[in-house]
Amino acid sequence: MKPALIGLAGPALTADEAALLRSHPPAGVILFARNIQDPPQLAALVAALRRLLPADALLMVDQEGGRVARLRPPHWRAHPPAAAFGACAAADPDGAARAAWCHGALIGAEAAAAGFDVVTAPVLDRRLPGASDVIGDRAFGADPALIARLGRAMAEGLLAAGVQPVMKHAPGHGRATADSHLALPVVAGGDPGTAPATDPVTAPDLAPFALNADLPWAMTAHILFPAWDAALPATLSPAVIGRIIRGRIGFMGVLVTDDLAMRALSGAPADLARAALAAGCDLALYCSGEIAATAALLDACPPFTPAAAARLAAARALATDRRRPLDQAALAAERDRLLASRPIASRPPA
Q: What is the DSSP letter of 309?
């Protein structure tokens, strides 16, 4: 397999896509709204992918809740955005944490039932005034400790469903004033030699990730942090990945790029994939579904490193070990009741 996750063009595999999956099998496939119509169609597509891909290949979906959801009504439940849990926490922190656990478990159970292994959530970025709304209500809030707690709860719920969570977007997208789908954000940072705990600029951004550094996956941010690397955005920067994500944050799990088709990055997708993998990412994510560029990217990817293969195996094992039976109707009812209820003096945290 090649260390890449790729997108597809539509709701069924084309002959060219099937041939590419046979000749250059990726580590997995990510599906979007363009690939998902209803449960029977999705089941057929998942079955076709499973027949073609290696047994340990992954199927990924972007399913945070709110505006970032690929499994949608009327065939799947509507889910609230992360901001709803942050608002609940202002009155009832324990209830909000339990609701976030239910939220993750419910999204995970739906995703697992549909055939997915990986869900790209929770978002651990901060929601800050003056920043681009690309994060906005996808964030739990602004307080690092609250984000860390609610993000942890959601991730643990996903793991309880047997799904691998992906925290994003390390080392933090919250202060960006541009949407990285459209342009490269530039975010001022602190002194590169200052420890996170004492750096008043970057410490709050890094803290939610550092407090969840033991989670199995993280996704990079396509953001330029000049204090850490004046030339390269985080996804392509050995300095940011090595010193900040692996170093200060302490994350040692599977590191996947954000979509290399986003306009924050310039250059051929194949070149970007090589650069991201050389910088220290484990997997290149390319979502466009454009067959020629996808084929070039897969052809350009080097073999898996032993470290990346070990991280992927550990992530899969963790989700398998944590999986337990879940009642989706009960989870939805409990989550919605907690989000709607008044404060209760004491509830067990997630």
A: H
Nearest by Cα to 32 from 22, 42, 43: 42
Calpha distance 60→159 (Å, rounded): 14
User: Which stretches within 75-165 are classed as H helix?
Assistant: 82-89, 93-114, 144-160
Q: Would residue 122 count as lying in a domain?
A: yes
State the Rg of the chain over Cα: 19
Exposed (0-12), middle (13-18) or buried (19+): which is 230, by Cβ within 10 Å? Answer: exposed
56 classed as catalytic: no
In a domain, 272, yes or no: yes
| CATH code, domain with 260 | 3.20.20.300
CA distance linking residue 147 with residue 168, whole number of Å: 12
Beta bridge partners of 68: 65
The domain containing residue 137 runs over which residues? 2-340
Q: In this structure, is residue 165 part of a structural domain?
A: yes
What is the rounded distance in angstroms from the CA atom of residue 166 to the CA atom of residue 106? 16
Whether this prediction's pTM lies above 0.90 is answered by yes
Give pLDDT tens digits for 137-156: 999 999 999 999 999 999 99
Is residue 347 in a domain?
no
Cα 319 to its chain centre, rounded Å, is 15
**8 A C-beta contact, residue 60 and residue 129:** no
Among residues 75, 181, 271, 336, the one annotated as catalytic is 181
Domain count, the chain: 1
Q: Which ranges constitute the DSSP H helices of the chain?
A: 15-23, 39-52, 82-89, 93-114, 144-160, 203-210, 238-239, 269-279, 291-300, 306-322, 328-340
- Give yes or no: 181 in active site: yes
For the chain, list residues with pLDDT below 50. Answer: 192-197, 344-350
Q: How far apart are the first and last CA of the chain?
A: 37
pLDDT of residue 200: 55
What is the model's pLDDT at position 267?
94
What's residue 350's pLDDT? Answer: 46
Instruction: Choose the catalytic residue: 62, 94, 258, 282.
Output: 258
Q: What is the rounded distance in angstroms from the CA atom of residue 43 to the CA atom of residue 231?
A: 44
pLDDT score at 349: 46
